[in-house]
Amino acid sequence: MTTRDALGIVTRSGDTYEVTFERRIGKPIAKVWAAVTVPERIADWLAEAEVDLRVGGHYRLRFPGGYGMDGVITALQPPQLLEYTWPDPEHPNSVVRVSLEADGEGCRLTLVQTALSRKVARGVVGGWHTHLEGLPGAAGGVRTAWTQVREDELLELYKDRLPV
Q1: Domain residues for 106?
Q2: What's the CATH code of the domain at 143?
Q3: pTM, two decimal places
């Protein structure tokens, strides 16, 4: 799959936007589940994390450069579903939903982030795309460092993909 084939989808719902990514990952569902729920594995592809893995528990992320997110887990069905809030002044009601489905020796991941402003959606879609490139490695215990250079390259692919 090429980078262009793996582009996320941005849709509009009223005044907000939603980004959706679908990936087939050639790792067992248990390993991918660990990569989205275990702090050490989350740090391998997304950010430093603190997780209280229960509905009502916290899901905290700390990114390089000082950005942080303090969310709350709103849905949990191991190893198939994790949903948490992603509050931010630019998108206070945003929710991230990660769904996993076994697929042969690997699994299918769907990641959706809702309730984004148009201004934020473009950056969010580029950011998720960049981070998701490291998820297969994280499922195998390999860290993939995020870089602004890579995110900027990917943002170019999204510049004309936001619905009006």
Answers
A1: 9-158
A2: 3.30.530.20
A3: 0.94
